[in-house]
Amino acid sequence: MTSKTFKIEHKGDWSGMELDCLFSDELIQKRVLELGQQISHDYVGAEKPPIMIGVLNGSLFFMADLMRAIDIEVEMDFIKIASYHRAESTGTVRLIKDISAQITGRDIIIVEDIIDSGLSMNFLRRRMLGNEPSSLRVATFLYKKEVSKLQEEPDYVGFVIPNRYVIGYGLDLEQQYRQLRAIYAFRDEDLEKIKEK
Ligand code: IMP
Ligand code: MG
Prior knowledge:
The chain has a single domain, classed as Rossmann fold. The protein is built from four helices and ten strands. The protein has helices at 25-43, 60-68, 119-129, 188-196, and strands at 5-7, 18-23, 51-56, 75-84, 92-97, 107-115, 135-143, 156-160, 166-167, 183-185. The structure holds inosinic acid (IMP) and magnesium ion.
């Protein structure tokens, strides 16, 4: 059973903060199975297996679960990027590790943990399209729809969430808490306290 809250124990100013569970392990697994079935259905009969491209590090668990929920042949690869956001429109994205697959003429599915500002996804989409895949779709586990500025809507979405900072199922706070099986959200008033410091 997933607990309703998660408490940060020892982590500087974050210590003692309680987070609320948004999606339990059970609910996540159920939703990922549905997405897997949908993808299997959409690509059945494809000439070559689609290539799922996971965005490191956050997509690790979503990628693993989603791929095993798909019952057609698929291939996988990974890309790693870092994004910096200052003011809303002036973020930059840096490539840290590129894919090794040849994607020209192939069906591509980008697999992301979360779309927040949309900056990373806009960058990834542009980069992938530069190599002329035969098709390009996006699967994201979480989508902060109300704050994202995307050039195109994602094709497969686990859950749309409000603009709250979340951890678990691959998502981190300063590289920690990725292994939590459920998704937990910080309370806005706690984040305000951190910003004020
Ligand atoms: P973007 O703002 O859409 O470019 O999001 C870039 C990346 O920031 C995501 O792929 C995540 O790795 C990270 N991120 C955005 N929102 C959250 C969150 O609520 N929790 C943890 N990581 C996040
Ligand atoms: Mg990410």
